[in-house]
Amino acid sequence: xxxxxxxxxxxxxxxxxxxxxxxxxxxxxxxxxxxxxxxxxxxxxxxxxxxxxxxxxxxxxxxxxxxxxxxxxxxxxxxxxxxxxxxxxxxxxxxxxxxxxxxxxxxxxxxxxxxxxxxxxxxxxxxxxxxxxxxxxxxxxxxxxxxxxxxxxxxxxxxxxxxxxxxxxxxxxxxxxxxxxxxxxxxxxxxxxxxxxxxxxxxxxxxxxxxxxxxxxxxxxxxxxxxxxxxxxxxxxxxxxxxxxxxxxxxxxxxxxxxxxxxxxxxxxxxxxxxxxxxxxxxxxxxxxxxxxxxxxxxxxxxxxxxxxxxxxxxxxxxxxxxxxxxxxxxxxxxxxxxxxxxxxxxxxxxxxxxxxxxxxxxxxxxxxxxxxxxxxxxxxxxxxxxxxxxxxxxxxxxxxxxxxxxxxxxxxxxxxxxxxxxxxxxxxxxxxxxxxxxxxxxxxxxxxxxxxxxxxxxxxxxxxxxxxxxxxxxxxxxxxxxxxxxxxxxxxxxxxxxxxxxxxxxxxxxxxxxxxxxxxxxxxxxxxxxxxxxxxxxxxxxxxxxxxxxxxxxxxxxxxxxxxxxxxxxxxxxxxxxxxxxxxxxxxxxxxxxxxxxxxxxxxxxxxxxxxxxxxxxxxxxxxxxxxxxxxxxxxxxxxxxxxxxxxxxxxxxxxxxxxxxxxxxxxxxxxxx
Length: 675
Hints:
Elements: H1 15-66, E1 74-78, E2 84-88, E3 95-103, E4 109-112, E5 126-135, E6 150-152, E7 159-163, H2 170-179, E8 184-190, E9 195-201, E10 209-216, E11 234-238, E12 243-247, E13 250-254, E14 258-259, E15 266-270, E16 279-285, H3 287-312, E17 314-315, E18 320-321, H4 328-342, E19 359-361, E20 367-369, H5 371-380, H6 384-389, E21 392-395, E22 400-404, E23 412-420, E24 424-428, E25 436-437, E26 443-448, E27 451-452, E28 456-457, E29 461-462, H7 466-478, H8 481-486, E30 490-495, E31 500-508, E32 514-519, H9 523-526, E33 532-533, E34 541-544, E35 547-548, E36 550-552, E37 555-557, E38 568-571, E39 577-585, H10 588-600, H11 605-674
Helix pairs in contact: 1-3, 1-10, 1-11, 4-10
């Protein structure tokens, strides 16, 4: 027998099972060691992952108590929300106000006196120009005598719509006006006698009345839409009207029913006229927002303590230890956080510790809040609570405002001195000789804050005053497409003492620029503008703690080489010189944010340990693969030995069978001979 095709055939023994048992016995110690290592690494990885997760949650919870807007939110309510609704911002002063509404604002609405038999009727051709402003027209009956004056609204640019053979029908005119987005809504109504075109100002208020000027060309008829001092061919269906109301007895008007400029920080939405008792409005500081942020901070910190205690504890009864018991890194993190929690805030006002606002530590190291104590603190000094938690600067001068700080800004009091106020770019005309705009002085082009306008066309008219022409200039410039797209605006004013116009950029600082690029034939001789560069704006300049800061517009930033580095202040007002000081403090939340930034930042110890554990787990997988290769070699060696044994046993069995047969044959021969 030369070979064995299946282990055990030669001997009749279950040698395959025996080989498997021997290999398993050889594998078991190493396999168990690797399994224990992997389980330990996985447990540690889970522990550090849990620690990292709860620290990240705590870091997120700091945002609520660190955000200054948390402490400036306001609650507001109205006693009758069917008459008006109210909302308030952070600048609203707490108080009670009684409001009575006597009129709601309305949008100017005009309708054609001409009745059309079909929406496809041809109206005419030419150019329709819409202007917005205040008019004395009140009569619903058309007639020139009822429209004596028109004062342009400088905040609403005029717009023109061209009507030609492609859109000269009633429906075509409607669609062209709406497509122009000119601040006018056009619609067609059927009043039972035929079709009329209805034009309505998109905005309410007396200053948003419509003036419609028409220049006809081609087929006549477009002048039916004229509504101006020249001709009132449209019927006024609704007169433009301001809202009228009183606040604590003071009479107020508004162009819209949404009023945000009467009570600082408070927006009213007028819904209907008051009947009888005035509507009471109450504005108060939002305590709930502060409490929610503080409770979120406490809850997140306590979650960390629970996790840290669980990972580092030992139960003597069960003799079970936390996965990170004795871990120096965990002890260091906990110590750093507790230190910041217990430290007094340097430079803070009356409340410099958490205990001073009712937050104390229990025997487990967790925080607890006494709501009654916090309420008493908020009653006593509401704004001082923010100094305990958030980084902020409190200025002694109302013309200095805190904007932001950097990680390197040191706690302290910083003196502020201003040598140059920020200004806006301007260009001033020569003395105006006329306020009449015609075809020879109605065009100019500007470049404002680096943005070039298209051709600016002024409405041709005899303006009664420099102020009226200034309003027209401002309206047309701000209506330029390029400027609007870039968010750039100008302010135009007229000085009656010098008889000069001034165009100012609405932006402050060195990036503020106004240049006149092109004027019309008679512009220089009539209202004084020539193609020229204006005076650029200036950035604010001054010192913070005696060291020159960096100015950008109205913002002054502390020098990078000083303790004021990254401190950004807003400088307003009209005075230079000493502007008092800014007391900069870092609250508990800001200090904790710095600690957590180091713990969770790039290449931090937690990440390094987690990566190390992942590498160790990967190493176990490599060791297991090496073990498999070694066991395959061992199994092959054992199989070879048992195969040889199986062959030997098979050979011996074969020899035994042969000898048995031969002996049996000899026995038979002997028996036969004896017979």
